[in-house]
Specification:
- The chain is of the alpha+beta class.
- The protein is about 25% helix and about 30% strand.
- The chain folds into three domains: about 80 residues, Uridine Diphospho-n-acetylenolpyruvylglucosamine Reductase, domain 2 (2-Layer Sandwich), CATH 3.30.43; about 110 residues, 2-Layer Sandwich (Uridine Diphospho-n-acetylenolpyruvylglucosamine Reductase, domain 3), CATH 3.30.465.10; about 80 residues, UDP-N-acetylenolpyruvoylglucosamine reductase, C-terminal domain (Uridine Diphospho-n-acetylenolpyruvylglucosamine Reductase, domain 1, Alpha-Beta Complex).
- It has six helices and 23 strands.
- Strand 20 and strand 21 form a beta hairpin.
- The structure holds flavin-adenine dinucleotide.
- Flavin-adenine dinucleotide binds next to strand 3, helix 3, strand 9, strand 15 and strand 17.
Length: about 300
Amino acid sequence: MFNYFNKNNFFFNYNLGSKTWFGTGGKCFCFITVDSKRTISIILKYFKRVFPVFIVGAGSNLIVRDGGINGIVIKLGKSFSQIKLYKKESILEIGGSTKDFEISKFCLKNNITGFEFLSGVPGTLGGNLKMNAGCYGHEICDNFLECEVINNVGEKVVKKKKDITFGYRSSTLGDDIVISAKFKVNYAKTKTISDKIKTIIKERKMSQPVGVRTGGSTFSNPKNHLAWKLIDAIKYRGKSCGGAMVSEHHSNFFINNKSATSLDLELLGEEIRTKVWDKYKIKLEWEIARIGKYKKI
Ligand SMILES: Cc1cc2nc3c(=O)[nH]c(=O)nc-3n(C[C@H](O)[C@H](O)[C@H](O)COP(=O)(O)OP(=O)(O)OC[C@H]3O[C@@H](n4cnc5c(N)ncnc54)[C@H](O)[C@@H]3O)c2cc1C
């Protein structure tokens, strides 16, 4: 069984937090980069009986708590980052670890429309499906047909669109690990696609903080409300808690001002949730996934 692992993809006491976009948080007991479905199945079938197992993508929507994770964290390796276009069937197959900018670049090159919005999202396909990533009127579930997953007992399963409920920044994928997914293809002229991408990049630069340690939108927008407006309404734009700060540029983005801990980020978030609830009786829900234990102080 251990032939599936080698010292290059297997690390103990791994500093996971520093690898997330926020760059905060603790270590995990074991970090494994996996390059075969068989290895994932083995981990879920056997190791999961002893340790909790987590999957991470690019860590762009993730807070790892300061006490770390007493479990195994897996990340899909390069062999899961293939993109295949089946021209006859008009189907695009994308590997679970493929980065969003690679997807959008591939689509531009092949005149495929509907994926332009990914040019500004810094995640991977697996994270996108789990979170139903979206912006500028598009969501990853729009052209989605089916995905291959490995479930929490290590079995390979194909899930069709009808098997998954996609909501606003959510899905019912649960503990399933997304290996790859298929999407319906629609074509457009190169110029139309590249113009859309340029507009998205320009708008992002104007409305969001760039070149900082952030996790994107902190809270999902409550029904009929915008999270950033509620945060502005309680006057939290620019406010800090330890090294964590609400961005001056976009108040639903938190920033690690170099010295933040994950606790600073969560305390800032909880303070905002309480104030918004007290003032408007509106519940802000975390969009950012938070995993691991709090550190004993
Ligand atoms: C600057 C910035 C801008 C952003 N803009 C947007 C935006 O416009 N729209 C938007 O929707 N999001 C946005 N995000 C958030 C984030 O990029 C997306 O949610 C993205 O889809 C997360 O992908 P990831 O690979 O980084 O996932 P991670 O952050 O690593 O993980 C997020 C969740 O997905 C799960 N996951 C990861 N890989 C897999 C897999 N293979 N199978 C199953 N589950 C998996 C994890 O367990 C976790 O629960 C932004 C983030 C940043 C930092």
